[in-house]
Amino acid sequence: MRELQAKIIEEMGVRPTIDPQEEIRRRVGFLKDYVQATGTKGFVLGISGGLDSTLAGKLAQLAVDELKEEGTDARFVAVRLPYKVQHDEDDAQAALAFIQPSESVVYNVAPAVDGFENEFASAAGVEMSDFNKGNVKARARMIAQYAVAGEHNLLVIGTDHGAESVTGFFTKYGDGGADVLPLFGLNKRQNRQVLKELGAEERLYNKIPTADLLDENPGQTDEHELGLTYEQIDDYLEGREVPEEAAHAIERRYTMTRHKRTVPVSILDNWWR
Ligand SMILES: Nc1ncnc2c1ncn2[C@@H]1O[C@H](COP(=O)(O)OP(=O)(O)OC[C@H]2O[C@@H]([n+]3cccc(C(=O)O)c3)[C@H](O)[C@@H]2O)[C@@H](O)[C@H]1O
Ligand SMILES: Nc1ncnc2c1ncn2[C@@H]1O[C@H](COP(=O)(O)OP(=O)(O)OP(=O)(O)O)[C@@H](O)[C@H]1O
Ligand SMILES: [Mg+2]
C-alpha cells in the first residue's frame, strides 16, 4: 500500500469491511451516550433526500426513540432546507417518511441567500459567482440548523464521512460546521450498506450523490465535480489499489484541504509545513 494511503486510512478510520448491524448499534449508542453526557435534548439535521442525511437522520431518530423508551426526554428535529423549490423534493419527502422524525420543519434558505447575494453585489460591485453562492447556501443551512439547536438545546448533526472528509468535499463552516458526526469512519458504499440494512427503499440508498448547490447546474453529481468516482475513493480508503491517476488526485485533494479538517491556524501552529 502507498505510504500516504496508510496514513490517510488511519486518519479517516475506514475499515475494509463492516458489519452493518454492528455499525448501527455503535453509532446509535454513540449518539445516545453523547446526548446523555452533555445534558442536551437531542439533535437537529437538514434532510436533503441524499443518502448521507437520510442515514444520519435515521440513526438520530433511533437514538432519541431509545432514549425516550429508557426515560430520557429527547427529540430529533428534521429540517427541510430548500433553496426555492428543490428539483428532487420527492426524494426529500421519501427520506422524511422513512425517518419518521419527532418533528419536522421547513426553512427555505432562499430569502437569506438572495439577501447576501444582493448585498454582496452592491458592496463589492461584482456579481457573486454561482460557485461562491453555492457555498453561501451551505452556510445558510448551517445557520438555520444552529438557530434551531440554540432555541431547543439540541446538537447539530454533521454528515461528514471518510469519502467526503478525505477529499475536503464540503463547505468549510457550511455543512462542515456541526457538533457530532455519526457517519465518521465509514466510506460512501458503507453508508449505502448501512442505510439498506435499516430498511430504506432503494431510491434512497441508491440515490446519486449531489451537493446540489448550483443555480446553473442543479443536481450536478459529486463524481462529475470531483473528477473521481466514489468507487475509486472507497477502494482507496479500504486499502485497495486504484489507478495511479486516481490515487494521486485523492492525495492532492487531501493535502489541499487539510485546513478544513483543523481548527483555524494560529501563530502557534506548524502542521502545514
Ligand atoms: N490553505 C488554507 N488555509 C486556511 N484556509 C484556507 C486555505 N485555503 C483556502 N482557505 C479558506 O477556505 C475557503 C475555501 O473553502 P470552502 O469555502 O469550503 O470552498 P471550496 O472548498 O472552494 O468549495 C466547497 C466545495 O465543497 C463542495 N461541497 C460543498 C457542500 C456540500 C457538498 C456535498 O458533498 O454535498 C460539497 C462544493 O461543491 C465545492 O466543491 C477559502 O475561501 C478560504 O477562506
Ligand atoms: N436541500 C437541502 N435540504 C436540507 N438539508 C440539506 C440540503 N442540502 C444539503 N443539506 C445538508 O447538507 C448536508 C451535506 O450535503 P451532502 O450532499 O453531502 O449530503 P446528502 O445530500 O445527505 O447526501 P449525498 O452526499 O449522497 O448527496 C446534508 O447531509 C444535509 O444535512
Ligand atoms: Mg446531497
TrEMBL record:
Pathway participation: Cofactor biosynthesis; NAD(+) biosynthesis; NAD(+) from deamido-NAD(+) (ammonia route): step 1/1
Binding site for Mg(2+): D52, E164
GO terms for cellular component: cytoplasm
Protein name: NH(3)-dependent NAD(+) synthetase
CDD domains recorded: NAD_synthase (cd00553)
Sites where the protein binds ATP: G46, I47, S48, G49, G50, L51, D52, S53, T159, K188, T210
EC assignment: 6.3.1.5
PANTHER family listed in its UniProt record: NH 3 /GLUTAMINE-DEPENDENT NAD + SYNTHETASE (PTHR23090), NH(3)-DEPENDENT NAD(+) SYNTHETASE (PTHR23090:SF7)
Family to which the UniProt record says this protein belongs: Belongs to the NAD synthetase family.
Domain NAD/GMP synthase: 24-264
GO biological process: NAD+ biosynthetic process
Residues the entry annotates as binding deamido-NAD(+): R139, K172, D179, H259, K260
Function, as annotated: Catalyzes the ATP-dependent amidation of deamido-NAD to form NAD. Uses ammonia as a nitrogen source.
Assembly notes: Homodimer.
Domain of life of the native organism: Bacteria
Organism per entry: Arthrobacter pigmenti
Keywords associated with the record: ATP-binding, Ligase, Magnesium, Metal-binding, NAD, Nucleotide-binding
The reaction(s) this protein catalyses: deamido-NAD(+) + NH4(+) + ATP = AMP + diphosphate + NAD(+) + H(+)
